[in-house]
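Please produce the structure of this protein holding S-adenosylmethionine.
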Amino acid sequence: MKKYIFDWKEKKSFKSASKQLEKKYDIESKEYDKIGLNPKNSWYEEMVLAPKEFIKLINPKKNEKILYCACGTGRISIELAKKGAKVYAFDISKGMLNKLKENLRDKSFKKNVIEIKKASLEEIPYKDDSFDKVVCRGTLDCFHPKHYLKFIKEMKRVLKPNGYLIIDLPWPQGKLGKISYNSKKCWSIVEIKKRFKEVGLILKKKNDVGTCHQLRFERLK
Ligand SMILES: C[S@@+](CC[C@H](N)C(=O)[O-])C[C@H]1O[C@@H](n2cnc3c(N)ncnc32)[C@H](O)[C@@H]1O
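Below is the modeled complex.
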């Protein structure tokens, strides 16, 4: 598989980190869905088991409007659409979105995928208070907490009052915590709770799966 190696020192701002991620996933998009499929592979937990648990935490309902931020090849978005949710998905990588469109071809649930856009977490292309649920997985760990908090505020903006934000974040001792940019900068769960509360998001549920906390927050009115 063709791999893109990060220059972590270059990831000083969320803009340079996003640019690198766009390049990385454009290069790796064709092979992405094959990563960790074998239970003996070290990425199996992260790529197969964790998404299953994440979908349970999202708990999608029929006709619910769900925004999937940084959707990648759509492995999770497709499961949400199968359950009847109205899915809106965006990603910064054209390669990943092309693969998502390929994965969607000729499927009965395709009608539930309402919109696919190329966009960035820095500026989510939807109006305030639009979605019942906003979700993001496997992405925020690539950014410094100071930077991803900006994304969190954007996600909260497009969430309806009383809507849910469902995300995952690494913890320092986990595999992702160790290899990610955040290694020494991962926030503890106490810090996460405090910082998110300051922007109007209250932690309602936490599951620790694989390398990450999977977290469900409710938006205050
Ligand atoms: C590890 S993949 C996870 C994909 C998907 N969420 C999943 O769980 O399979 C990370 C994704 O984040 C996307 N991404 C990175 N930075 C982004 C940004 N600033 N805005 C939108 N998408 C971004 C990448 O293009 C890539 O598709």
